[in-house]
C-alpha cells in the first residue's frame, strides 16, 4: 500500500520452521447461542478486556470457526513481550476449542498485521516486520508451520505485504516492495502471486503504460487464476483523464489478459479514481468504489459510489445505500458475488450486509439499543452466507461491559 518506508533486508529461507504452538485456553463459545447477537472477540484467556492498545483487521474463516486479527494489546496471551509504540501482533482465535494463539511469535520482535484466512480454513497469511523490512508469511493452522511467501520477485523487490490467499492456500497474491524508494519515473509497488507448491513467483500486475504508476490491493480468485488489483498514479493522468488517479484491473494468469474493470459498459475508462477491488470466488464479479461519474448515471456528482462488474456479461451495476441517499463503501463480497458488506456514512453510520438479489439490507453493527453504530471491516470479514461478520469499532456500546476505551474486534451473528 506504500504506507511504510522500508530498508534493505537480507534474504531469509523460505521455510522459517515448524513451530508447535500450544494454544492458550480461552472461554469457548457458549453452546446453544441463537438469534442475532454480538460478541467481543479480542478478549484475554480469562475473558477480560484487551489492555494496552486497540485491535484491528479481523478476518473470519468461511465456517466461522477461526477469527484472525491484529492487536496492540499485551495481555491477550501469556508471555507477549513484543512491546513498543503501535506494535501489533497477529492472533488466531479458535471458536470451537476456545484457544487463542499469537501466530507471529516465532518471528521475534516487530510489527505484524493484516491477516487473511484461506477458504479451507487451513492457512493464515499475514504481514510481519523482520530484519527491518515487511514480509509475507503463511501459517499452517494444524502444525504451526511458518513459510515466507514474498520470494522470487523482480530485481530490487525484496519485501511484501497485504496478502490474499486462494481457497486452498496454494497461491498467495501480495504487494511486492522495493528495498529503497524508487525514482519518480518508476513504478512503485508491484503485485505478485506465489505458487507455494512449485516454489515459483510471477508478476500479476501489468507493465505500466506511463511512468510513475504503482500497484496494490491484490485480491485473488478461489483457484488462483485471477487477480484484481489497483493501479494508482502519483500525479493523475490515467486513461480516463487528469482526474483519473487510480483504476481497477483484473489479471487472468492463464491467458495473460489485463482487463480494466472500472469502465463503462462499452469500455470507456472511468474519469476519476477507483479503489478497493473485491473479487468473487470464481472471478466473475469484481466490486469496487469509485468517484467516477461516467461508469453509470449517478444522482449525486459530489460523492463516490459502489459498483459491481459482471466480467462475463460486461454489465456494471451501481449499488446504493439505504434509501439511495447513503454514502457507501464496499468492504467485502461473498464468494458467489450475491452479497456485499457495505459501510454506510452520511445520514447514518454502520455496517450492513446487502443482498444484491433481493435488495435487503441487514444491520450487522448495532449498539446495545439496536441502532446502527460506526464500524469498519476488511475484505475477509463475512462468511459466505452473510450470517456472521467480524468488524472493529472504537465505540463502547456494542456489547455490555465494554470499558477498556480501545478499538475492539466484534463478531455479529445475524441469525
Automatic annotation (TrEMBL):
<feature type="region of interest" description="Disordered">
    <location>
        <begin position="198"/>
        <end position="217"/>
    </location>
</feature>
<feature type="signal peptide">
    <location>
        <begin position="1"/>
        <end position="30"/>
    </location>
</feature>
<dbReference type="InterPro" id="IPR011042">
    <property type="entry name" value="6-blade_b-propeller_TolB-like"/>
</dbReference>
<dbReference type="Pfam" id="PF07676">
    <property type="entry name" value="PD40"/>
</dbReference>
<protein>
    <recommendedName>
        <fullName>WD40 repeat protein</fullName>
    </recommendedName>
</protein>
<feature type="region of interest" description="Disordered">
    <location>
        <begin position="362"/>
        <end position="383"/>
    </location>
</feature>
<keyword id="KW-0732">Signal</keyword>
<dbReference type="InterPro" id="IPR011659">
    <property type="entry name" value="WD40"/>
</dbReference>
<feature type="region of interest" description="Disordered">
    <location>
        <begin position="258"/>
        <end position="277"/>
    </location>
</feature>
<comment type="similarity">
    <text>Belongs to the TolB family.</text>
</comment>
